[in-house]
Amino acid sequence: MQSSGISPWILLIALSATVASFAQVLLKKSAMEPHANVIKEYLNWKVVFGYLLMFAGMFLTIIAYAKGVQYKNGPIMESIGNIWVVILSFIFFREPVTKKKVIGNLLILAGIAVFYLNWSKLLPVLSFMDTDWGTIFGSLAG
Length: 142
Description:
Blueprint: H1 8-32, H2 38-42, H3 45-66, H4 73-78, H5 80-93, H6 99-116, H7 119-122, H8 133-141
Helix pairs in contact: 1-3, 1-5, 5-6
């Protein structure tokens, strides 16, 4: 059964996705700039700091998993990075926020909400939705 609350360690994975999104912005900013030579292309503050942020994001995810976050939660919370991409692309690159991007982000948020919803409290007949699917499929296989 899923618990009714979201663990702060799961939120750490969401923070990891946010950090990684900022790292991607720095790396794209650097890639869009002209560089005097190949060394300066790869050894400038934006690239170095971008990769440090990527490492920090990965480290936060590892900590969250070490604290007991189930692997099924990772991809759900990592999808928050897609939301950040739209926001940061608008802020830093002036990319338009289109209707499709808004709908896509709303679907991501709805998917996260549905995944963490306590179905049995909403409607008792849907209590089967609270079951750990790995347990169901594991019992069918064995």
